[in-house]
Predict the 3D structure of the following.
Amino acid sequence: MKPLYLSIALALGTVFVMPDSLAGSSNATHDVAYQQSMQIKNEHLKARLAEHSLSKNNRPHLFSLIDQRLKRDISVADSASISSLQNCSSGRPELCSFFKHMGVEVATNNTTGESFVVLSALYSKTVSTNYTLIDLRLINEKGEQLTLPVYKEYFGDGQEAKRKVVYSYAKAQNILSKLAASERIFADGWVTVVYMDASKKQVVEDRNIVVEYSKDTLLAKLGYLSHQGAGTFSETGASVFPATDQGGFESNIAKPIDNRSEAGEGVPDGRIVMCLNRNYGDCDYENIYPRDTPTSQTKLKVPFKGSLNVMGKVTRIYQPDFTTLEVKEENGAITLVENPVVDKPTFVNHGSNIFIQTKEGGGAVPIGGSDFQSISDFFAKQLTVSYDKFLGIDRTTLSWDIPQSEGVFGDATLFSRYQDTHWIMHFALDHVLRPGRDPLTASFVIGSTEMESGWQDIGHPQMQIVYSCLAEGTLITLPNGKQLPIEQLDVGDQVLGASEFSPDHHLALTIEDISVGVETIPMVQLKTKSGKTLLLTESHPVVMQSGKAVWASKIEQGAKILTENGLEMITQIEEIEFADKVYNLRLGRGKDDPNYQQGESFSMFANGLQVGDLAMQSEHEFSNEVETTEDVLNRLPQVWHQDYLNSLKQ
């Protein structure tokens, strides 16, 4: 193997980690070292920002914070831990700070039919941020750019919430010759983020993470093989030649998939719906627990089944702690032998693992095992390895089959309502391209994407984790006028309600399904002029004076809503933390009812207030409002306003 080129070593030189002993010390020697190290770090960061024409003139507050690090006027995040991941608290598997290269893929533009190489990266924190910048490019071992360097700025947490992403593109034909001439390829990503810590100090965190991808596997996805790999074709002098079979390097995902919608099985709706203790017919997968299950034991469970093709022979699999599984081949049999020695490659950011990443919660949650614990090596040990030939060249197929009962993630915080949830499968491997060559280490990623709809052959649908909720203890009105706590109702019982088409006409409705879950974000408590109160999740629909339903969080003081006894005014609105279970009901009328309509949703009376059932909740589950400039300025601290307004001009 040739030595690493100086340009890549210099790229890694932009990663400066302040150990606790240095960052927390105040003696003169350490102060000098701090100043010197931080000065170099600031210079590298400013140089990177300058590439995108960002300076103190158009980002005055950002650059003032960078300069203040020299004076220790603000906190500097320590990212010394393996993979730059910190546990939120002891014993929890959630990753507070998640910086993830999301792979390099080939996508086809729907309009032009041209193939593009697409690179992506994601950054997410569990805490709210004031500013995030991510930049990304694909380079080779000489530091030459294969995709254009791009950057994305986020001011505060807007519609993207706590998930920040960036994409870098290049037309495949424009980079094919340079890609073929490259020996190795790297995703070079940088993130700079500003947030407030627990003591209300501003924290500036910046990281540069470089990961290596497989050049030959990318070429194979594009439909080409390098002459070095093909051997007998080298006399042609061509760097690459077209492969006759371009389908040999497609990942195969059998689970999870989008295979159902309200229209029924086999009719996808562009999302993988994970239902929590409810079944409204649109569920791709259900997570059903007995109603008396303790909240601490309600976990999100997702099945994973599929395969991945890799160019060459995979000889080593890196586990999350960077111990390894050595791939041994003897007499045609392949076995995985565990090696307890930690061996973290330079250009690998994560070991082999599966993550669930929500934009509402931030961070990420890795897969655990069926005993509900964070088992760090669970996914890697589920992999099976097989070898074959692809046009005479060694090829490896990695396969996995994790049943839903064992695809357990995190703690009960994931048993909640999340929109556009990412599932990410990461593979860290050594592979030998040709016999007699040294192994190369590379990362491979399969998972969901949120790219716009103008592309095909890219990624997989995101998940929506859904249920809907009224607080435990909420009194539901029955047809006879009596009330029962929602947790005491059963499927088949009748309640008083109304159709979405005639909200003023009350009728007896039958409970067809009951949703039970937990809520991890503050709930909304509404209080009326007559003293009625109701605690419900922010997205639960409430029927207004007009007969239309709106989110509970969108209701304003003074608004009039429908109740069991007519119109009432909302006089008080509060956010309340709630630790117990939440419930909702799916209601229906018999199909022999002359007024029956397919897809009809209903409302009911909760503590006397008219609110939506599960079907109406599904219609209003998630909001996709577009933020205006005024909206951003209203939620952004004043000191960031000029930086944000300047960003609109670039």
Summary: Residues 6-76 form one domain. Confidence is low (pLDDT under 50) at residues 1-26, 78-94, 229-238, 369-374.
